[in-house]
Amino acid sequence: MIRTIIVDDEPNAREDLEKKIKTDPEFDVVSTCANAFVAIRDISSKHPDVVFLDINMPKISGIEMLSMLDKDNMPRIVFVTAHGEYAIEAFKKNAIDFLLKPVKSDRLNITLARLKENHQPQSIVTEAFPTDLTFVPCYQGTRYYLINVKEIIHAFSSPTTGVHLVTGDSEQEFQTNLPLKVFDDNSQLKRCHRQHMINPDYIKFIEKLDNGLGKIYTYGNHTIPVSRNFMDNFPSIA
Amino acid sequence: MQDILFLEHLAPLLQHMLVFLGLAYLFTKTPVFTALVNNSLSLPDKVIIYLVFSGFCILGTSLSEPSIQTSDAIANTRAIGAVLGGLLGGPIVGFLVGITGGIHRIISMSSISDPINYIDIACAVATTFEGLFAGCVHHYLSRKGKIETLFSPHFVWHVAFIVGLGHVAIILLFGVYTSNGMEAWNLEKEIGLPMLLANSFGAALIMYMIGEQKQACDELSSSAAAWRIADKTASIIYGRFNQESSRKIAEIIQRETRVGAVAITDRNRLLAFSGLGEDHHRPGSPISSEDTLKVIKENKVLFADGIRKTYQCRLKKTCELGSALIIPLRDDANNEVVGTIKLYEPKNKLFRNINRKLGENLAHLLSSRILAGHYELQRELRIQDQYKILVAQINPHFLYNALTTIGHIAGKQPDRARNLLHYLSDYFRKNLETSDDTTTLGCELEHVKSYLEIEKARFEDRLLVQIDAPEHLLTQVVPVFTLQPIVENAIKHGTSELLDTGTIKITCIEHNDSFTLTVEDNAGLYKKSNTNGIGLKIDERIKMRYGNHYGIDIQCEPEQWTKVNIHLPKTRSKHDPYNHC
Question: What architecture is the A135-233 domain classified under in CATH?
């Protein structure tokens, strides 16, 4: 079975595509998502093999969403779009498949056949659309936010509650579905610990401890641990 | 005996006068004539006046026939030259004309056989006096700012009569002084009255003619200048009355009229300034002169001639400008003053009458240009409009989305899909039937509802629509395609960017003689850059049609809401509100 997620902000388009994909018994639609926020969550939790991704969506477009996915666990992406120009771009780079809306069954079947032949992870996707992370989709309780990556002071992951972000002067805490790995690849945040990342702009000073460990003090007077393995990321104290 | 002598002297004098009139008439047709009637005389002008009227003096003496010569004194029209020279040229010119005429009188009437006597001297002195006196009158009038009085024949008659009396008095005084009193008395008894009358009437008549010619000349040259300016500015203003076009026009007018400075304002700001005082009259600054504001308010020409009413620059005490002519520029289409044109002269220069006329002509010209431009712009907009409407009628993007959505729905809910197809064809049918520029609010709302039904199907529960318009306002007239593009924008750049449910509210509020349509979304994502200028276009269209009180304003509370308010005047349609829908 090929695990599939459909992402589209128009409910009828979503349903229509789901119905058409389901005619092929080899495909299992594990989730349908109305926006990128939900999609990122479901992709990281359900590990699909294939994502049918709409490009024009509110707040975060399908292309922006690519930069928010973990490169090493990238599912195969099929763009579904009303805009031919994106499709042509994708086609030129020979990176990903694309479908033009409205999706016709004949054309879809060709795509499904290709996917059945090869549904290995597809890291080449992000090279076709190189994008730096500028905004990070986050949530506090049930509300969604887009946080500018420059405002993040500190990111850390907890084994039970996932990734947390601390931002700005008021040091608010948000949760995000993006793994820390994505910040490693696509942002200026620096890894200082297996579970912690720091924005270098907010480091006040770094204290070196005895056992090869360190301690970062931020301008907000918070402390963040530096582990032995990541000491090299901070040449000023190494 | 006396009566016969009187006529005998008067008749030839009248003949001379006619000769003068003829000569003067010919002279007014020559190019140098303009020099005579220029209100601010330059040195070459004065030289011309001196030469012309000295000529008149000499002619007046030379024409006198020896037959009516009585004891050396000759009844003559020399005084006409002196009086007119003085009146037109001022004291110095008058004095010089008089003394030239006087010296000529002495030289021409004396010979070796007939040496210079007291009469010769008296005549010369009298003529000089006449010129000087008339010159002083000129000086007095010009200081009082009543220089136009010079051209009143009535006034000239009086001046000539008074100097004539002076002339008689001088001759008699000289007679008494040189113990020839009796002879002088007899002489004046004989020729005094005819000369007095002939010279007064002659001077008045000639001046009358000069005045007439001057007026004709003023009008001619002012309209000629107006035409020249019209020609040069023709391509500039057409349709666009703004800082750029105003600057070019002000420069051309200043160059053509050679006034001290020219300014053009709109209702609030100085748009352009060319000439003296450019350093502190800055284009773009608000209007500082109360006079100008008064002209705009009262829609009347204001003339501060620098004498009775002075002009004082409010920006700089030392500003050279001393007189100003301020004329409103009218937009007759909307019956309002759109600005002013101002001509200035510096303090040391009189405002030329010709420029006053010219200024009025120019304002008229610019006003009709603005009007023509207004119509032209309106026509252009109408063409653009029609094009836009055509495109909107097809609206391919919307059609694509609509058909895709209906396609998606057709499989699972065929009846709903059929309904949506009906809404879609309704929407396009209304587009096709739009032949007028206007429709009723009722029709426009129906049109928008058809549009929204499709959009609601596309976004399903992500889009809510509320429409609230009082029944009695549905007959009001609105320009076609006013509401629909704004609603489309509110969805495209507003609610479709929301993760949560988007709400579009359309409301209508009534005022005394206008009403406001408001399209509100709950996205608050309005940015000037992402509206494709549709709001601006509709605003322009409404302002063109109904004037500047109406149009569109946009309020936005970021991340909360955007409100687009459309202000329109109340005009009830004769038709039933749904007549065409």
Answer: Beta Barrel (2.40)
